[in-house]
Amino acid sequence: MSSYLIIDGYNLIHKIPPLLQASRSSIDFARDELINMVGSYCDYYNTEGIIVYDGNQSKRTVEDGNPTVIYSKRGESADTVIESLVYKLKDRKEARVVTDDRVISNMVTGMGAFTMHVMLFYIEVKDAVASIRDKIS
After folding, report:
1. What number is the average pLDDT over the span 39-58?
2. CA-to-CA distance for 12 and 83, rounded, in angstroms?
3. In a domain? residue 137
4. Which of 40, 53, 73, 112 has the fewest CB within 10 Å, making it most exposed?
5. CB 30 within 8 A of CB 9
6. CA distances for 70 relative to 1, 9, 35, 101, 135, angstroms
7. Residue 59 has what pLDDT?
8. Domain of 107: which CATH number?
């Protein structure tokens, strides 16, 4: 059974303090840090990660590896992409969408997916990273 972690990319970057601080210097660096953060979470919890961004801010795309990074197409919002990803899942109860955007939360919850607030996700990431470090030590 697979589970999916779908991330509202810029929503997290603007809410998680280290990512927000990084974005002030370089949005590319902040996105890379989010990829690392989500990757650690996905490795620890054995889940598939997908980070979704509004595409009008970058032309980069990363489709191999975990997490997958998706940029919305011109004229399409990240919200629409997230809704579509959840809709296409066979078992929507296996999806967890991380966002503080109330509209997205209500939409995906109505389709049967779960949502997680950004700061709760950040706490879980820090716990996962600490556990990984403890196992290595």
Report:
1. 87
2. 17
3. no
4. 73
5. no
6. 23, 9, 12, 18, 32
7. 55
8. 3.40.50
